[in-house]
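ok so heres the complex, two chains, lmk if somethin looks off
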Amino acid sequence: DAGVIQSPRHEVTEMGQEVTLRCKPISGHDYLFWYRQTMMRGLELLIYFNNNVPIDDSGMPEDRFSAKMPNASFSTLKIQPSEPRDSAVYFCASSSLGLAAGDEQFFGPGTRLTVL
Amino acid sequence: KQEVTQIPAALSVPEGENLVLNCSFTDSAIYNLQWFRQDPGKGLTSLLLIQSSQREQTSGRLNASLDKSSGRSTLYIAASQPGDSATYLCADILTGGGNKLTFGTGTQLKVEL
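and the predicted structre for the whole thing:
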């Protein structure tokens, strides 16, 4: 298996533009997680899905952020409009049985977003 | 709200040295705790997972312990190697916390030749 795949790996955009980050989880994994990592705040959970259904989005910073999982093999995280403070590395991770079942997470390589 | 702190923030040691990384948490109602490794420009790799009923887990040169009563976990690395250089993060899930991991601040380790 190729592991969790994220695209693009790097994104540079201007303030006000729409940004879409993509993730393909490991095949057969029922859980998908989106995280954001910054120097100031560390690694934070934004949202997670179980069987394509959003379960907890309490970490989504504001309405400018939205996430979807139209099928078991694809998820997007969208920021519209983007702001400089959104600059961070965004990670996607997947898990087979979920963390509450003691299962581990597998992380993608991340997307480094820079908003000018 | 769970807070997870790792001390020191950075550590530099000579090759071959045994070392301990520390992780402390404010809420002891932990379901499980994990240690991750993050290499520059890459995602996280899970190293060890300790269930709340366990006291420690071992994998090769790595040993992780958990003491819920004192709110601490340690990661012991034996005979460190330059390839161990990375940032190490601990993260926990609270009992009843579903699938929400709370990550620590990380310790950046450098093992020098």
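quick notes: Chain B has a mean pLDDT of 93. thats all i got rn
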